[in-house]
Specification:
There is one protein chain. The chain is built from 20 helices and 20 strands. The strands form three sheets. It has a six-stranded mixed beta sheet with strand order 6-7-8-3-9-10, with helices on both faces. Strands 12-13-18-15-17-16 form a six-stranded mixed β-barrel. A four-stranded antiparallel beta sheet has the order 2-1-4-5, covered by helices on one side. It is an alpha/beta fold. It is 47% helix and 21% strand. It has three domains: 244 residues, 3-Layer(aba) Sandwich (Rossmann fold), CATH 3.40.50; 176 residues, no CATH class; 197 residues, no CATH class. The chain binds adenosine-5'-diphosphate (ADP) and magnesium ion (MG). Magnesium ion binds next to helix 1.
C-alpha cells in the first residue's frame, strides 16, 4: 500500500500480538497487527472501546512490548533493546500526550515541562529557556509558575504537549488527547498537533471520535485487536523544515549531567517529604530517638570513664602496691609470710624510690566513752601519707621515731571523727580511744576523701605498723608495701626492678604488683565493654527506626506508582527512579540523624545544668559515626523500596491512576 514516493518508513509493525493472561488462558488485545507509518505522517487510530487502541499505542511508544511479532523503529528491532535503550528512545525521540494529562501535581507547569530535559542531560539554563519558550508558543507564557491544580483541562493538556516536545521529539503519541476536554479546548489541542505535523513531526493520535480522526491524513481502524480499515483521507502537509528550537541541544558535561539529575532527584525527594509532612516527621522520630540515644550513651560512658580516671589520679600516680601471692584472688596469699619490713628497707635504698611504706591491716572495734564503732586498722610507715598523697585536716602524723618506738598514736579519718568525736567540744585531737583493749592517743585527722574510687563510709584509722604488728596482730609479715617511684623513673621499669629485687630476696617470685596504671586500664576496658553493651541496645532501636523508614518508603512507592509511570514514559532510566527514592530515604534518615545529634547535645546541656557530678563528653568520632550510620540506614532500608519502584513496568505504572 506504500506509494513509491513516501519517505522511508519510521515505524514498521509486523504480526504484532499482545496477549494478557485472563483466567486459565489468555486474551489477545492485539491479534496480529501489521502497520507501517512513514516519518512525518499524521495517523489517527480509531475503533470502539476495548478494540486495542491503547495497547497498540503503548507498544508503539515502547512503554510495552509485544508478546509476539516484530516492531522496528527507524530500522532497528525494539525486541533487541534493553530497558535503558528503550528509555532513551522515549526520552529523545518520542513524546506522549495522555487523555488525563498525567502531570506531576507537585511541580509547576515549567517544572513539568522541564523534567524530561533533566533526564536528557540538558543544563539548567537550557532547560528553563526551552521549556519557557515552548510554553510561550502554546500560549501559556503567563502560567509558568502555576501548578496543574491551578490550570484548566485545556491548559494542562498544553503543558503536557510542551512536555512531549521539550526534548525535540520527532514522534508524538497522543492517546485520546481531547477526551477530557470541552470542544473549544479540544480544538486548540488538535490545532497544535496539526501545526507540529506541519513542521515535520510524526503524530499518532488515538481517538474514538471521528471528527477528531478527520484531522489526520490517514485513519487506521481497529476492531477486536486487528486492523479492519486503513484509508487516506487528506493529503500530506507540504513538508516544512522543523524549527531549530526543537532540535536536540548540545548536552552538558557528564559531571554536570550527574549533578543535575541528582539535584532533580533531591528536589523531588524534598517535595515528596513536604507533601507528607506528618508521615515524614513520624518516620524520622524513630531515627531521631535511635541516634540521640546512641550518641548520649557513648557520651555518658566517656564522661563517667573520665570522672573515674580523674578519681584514680587523685589517689596518686606512680605508686606501686606490692602484695604477697601470685595475683589478686590467690587463696594462698594470706599464708605467704615472706613479705617483711626488711624488704621495705631494702626497697627504700633503691635510687629510683621516692618513698616506701609497709602496711599491715586488721579490723577492730574503736571505743570512746560509751561509743563503739568497728574500723579498719591500717598499720603504716611514716611515709604513708606522702606516698598516698593523703592530707590532714588537723593535727599531725607520727614520725619515724614514733614508728620505732611503737608509739600508741593514731591518725583517724573523717568517718571515725564523725562516729566518735562529733559532739566533743575541743575536737578529736588529744583525745584517747581504745582499739580493742589498747589505748591510743589521737594525733591527727585526715581530710575527707573526695568521693569516687576507693572512698567508703567505713571508719579507718592509721597507726605505726610496728604498733599494729606488736600490739594488735602479733605477726611480723606485711599485708603490702607501697612504693612511690621517682617522677623521672618509668613505672613499668620500676615494677620490673621491684620484682627482681624481691624474687632475689625471697628466692622465689611470691609477690605481685598493682599499680594505678593497671587499675586505670581495667576501668577503661570495663567502661568500654559497658558502653558497647548499652550502645548495642541503642543500635537495636536504630534498626527498628530503619525498618520504619523502609515501611514508609514502601507505602510512598505504592502511592506514587503513577508518578513513576510518568517519569518512565518521558524517559527516566531505572537508575533515575532508584536514585530518587534512595535519596528520599537517605534524606529522612540524615535529617533525623542530625536532629538526633542536636537532641543529644541538648540533653548533655540539660544534664550539665542540673549540676551532675560528671558531664557528658561528646566525641567528634561518635557524632561523625552517627551521621554515617543514619546515612547507611537510609541506603540500607531505602534500597528495597527504591528498587521496587525502579522495577515497575511503565505501562502498569501508568495504568494505575
Ligand atoms: P482501547 O484503548 O481501544 O479502549 P485497550 O487497548 O485499553 O482498548 O484494551 C484492549 C483489550 O485488552 C481490552 O479487552 C482490555 O480489557 C484488555 N486489556 C488491556 N489492558 C489489559 C491488562 N493490563 N490486563 C488484561 N487485559 C487488558
Ligand atoms: Mg484506551
Amino acid at each position: 500500500m506504500a506509494e513509491p514516493l513516501t519517505p522511508a518508513p519510521l515505524i514498521v509493525l509486523s504480526g504484532v500480538r499482545r496477549e494478557y493472561p485472563a483466567g486459565d488462558g489468555t486474551i489477545a488485545a492485539l491479534a496480529g497487527v501489521d502497520l507501517v507509518i512513514p516519518a512525518g505522517e499524521m495517523v489517527a487510530i480509531v475503533g470502539p472501546s476495548g478494540s486495542g487502541k491503547s495497547t497498540l499505542m503503548n507498544i508503539l511508544g515502547c512503554l510495552d512490548r509485544p508478546t509476539a511479532g516484530s516492531y522496528r523503529i527507524a530500522g532497528s528491532e525494539t525486541a533487541a533493546l534493553g530497558m535503558d535503550e528503550l528509555a532513551a528512545l522515549r526520552r529523545e525521540r518520542f513524546g506522549f500526550v495522555f487523555q488525563r494529562y498525567h502531570l506531576l501535581s507537585e511541580l509547576t507547569a515549567l517544572g513539568n515541562v522541564e523534567m524530561p530535559a533533566t533526564y536528557a542531560g540538558l543544563s539548567l539554563a537550557d532547560r528553563k529557556a526551552r521549556a519557557g519558550a515552548l510554553l510561550g508558543r502554546l500560549g501559556m507564557a503567563d502560567r509558568l509558575g502555576h501548578r496543574p491544580g491551578q490550570l484548566s483541562g485545556g491548559q494542562q493538556q498544553r503543558v503536557s504537549i510542551a512536555r512531549a516536545l521539550v526534548n525535540g521529539a520527532d514522534v508524538v503519541f497522543a492517546d485520546e488527547p481531547t477526551g477530557a476536554l470541552d470542544r473549544a479546548s479540544g480544538e486548540e489541542v488538535l490545532k497544535i498537533l496539526d501545526e507540529l505535523n506541519a513542521e515535520g513531526t510524526t503524530v499518532v493520535i488515538v481517538t474514538h471520535d471521528m471528527a477528531v480522526a478527520g484531522r489526520a491524513e490517514r485513519i487506521v481502524e481497529l476492531s477486536d485487536g486487528v486492523i479492519v480499515a486503513d484509508r487516506r483521507v487528506r493529503d500530506r502537509h507540504a513538508a516544512r523544515p522543523r524549527p531549530a528550537a526543537t532540535a536536540a541541544a548540545p548536552v552538558a558535561s557528564p559531571w554536570r549531567v550527574a549533578a543535575d539529575r541528582f539535584r532533580e532527584a533531591l528536589r523531588m525527594a524534598l517535595l515528596a517529604m513536604n507533601a507528607h509532612r506528618l508521615r515524614t516527621v513520624l518516620t524520622m522520630l524513630g531515627i531521631v530517638i535511635g541516634i540521640a540515644s546512641v550518641v548520649c550513651v557513648v557520651a555518658l560512658g566517656e564522661g563517667s570513664r573520665r570522672k573515674v580516671l580523674s578519681n584514680i589520679s587523685s589517689l596518686g600516680t606512680n605508686t606501686l602496691e606490692i602484695f604477697p601471692g601470685k595475683d589478686f584472688g590467690d587463696v594462698r596469699s594470706a599464708k605467704v609470710k615472706t613479705l617483711v619490713v626488711a624488704d621495705a628497707r631494702a626497697l627504700a635504698e633503691q635510687p629510683w624510690v621516692a618513698g616506701v611504706t609497709p602496711t599491715v591491716s586488721t579490723n577492730s572495734t574503736l571505743r570512746y566513752g560509751a561509743l563503739e564503732v568497728s574500723a579498719q586498722i591500717n598499720g603504716v610507715g611514716e611515709q604513708y601519707f606522702i606516698v598516698k598523697g593523703t592530707k590532714l585536716a588537723e593535727g599531725r602524723i607520727f614520725d619515724g621515731d614514733g614508728v620505732r618506738r611503737m608509739a600508741q598514736d593514731v591518725v583517724i579519718d573523717e568517718n571515725t571523727r564523725k562516729a566518735l568525736f562529733a559532739t566533743v567540744a575541743g575536737g578529736a585531737v588529744g583525745q584517747t580511744l581504745l582499739i580493742g583493749k589498747v589505748p591510743f592517743r589521737v594525733i591527727g585527722v585526715t581530710q575527707a576523701q573526695q568521693g569516687g574510687f576507693g572512698s567508703s563510709a567505713n571508719p579507718s584509722v592509721y597507726l605505726p605498723y610496728t604498733t599494729v604488728q606488736a600490739r594488735l596482730l602479733g605477726t611480723y609479715s606485711l599485708r603490702s608495701i607501697t612504693v612511690r617511684v621517682n617522677d623521672d623513673t618509668d613505672t613499668s621499669l620500676a615494677e620490673q626492678a621491684v620484682i627482681q629485687l624481691l624474687t632475689q630476696r625471697h628466692a622465689a617470685k611470691d609477690v605481685f604488683i598493682l599499680n594505678t596504671d593497671d587499675i586505670r586500664r581495667t576501668i577503661t576496658s570495663t567502661a568500654a565493654v559497658l558502653t558497647l553493651l548499652v550502645a548495642a541496645i541503642a543500635v537495636i532501636s536504630l534498626i527498628v527506626g530503619g525498618i520504619g523508614v523502609m515501611n514508609i518508603m514502601l507505602v510512598s512507592v505504592s502511592e506514587r506508582v503513577a508518578e513513576i509511570g510518568v517519569r518512565m514514559a518521558v524517559g527516566a532510566r531505572r537508575s533515575d527512579i532508584l536514585q530518587q527514592f534512595l535519596i528520599e530515604a537517605v534524606l529522612v534518615c540524615l535529617i533525623g540523624g542530625l536532629i538526633g545529634i542536636a537532641a543529644a547535645l541538648g540533653f548533655g546541656a540539660a544534664f550539665a545544668a542540673f549540676g551532675s557530678s560528671f558531664s557528658l563528653v561528646y566525641s567528634g568520632t561518635s557524632i561523625a559515626a552517627a551521621v554515617l550510620c543514619s546515612t547507611l540506614i537510609g541506603v540500607l532500608f531505602g534500597f528495597l523500596p527504591a528498587r521496587n519502584a525502579s522495577l515497575l513496568d511503565p505501562v502498569a505504572a501508568l495504568a494505575r491512576d
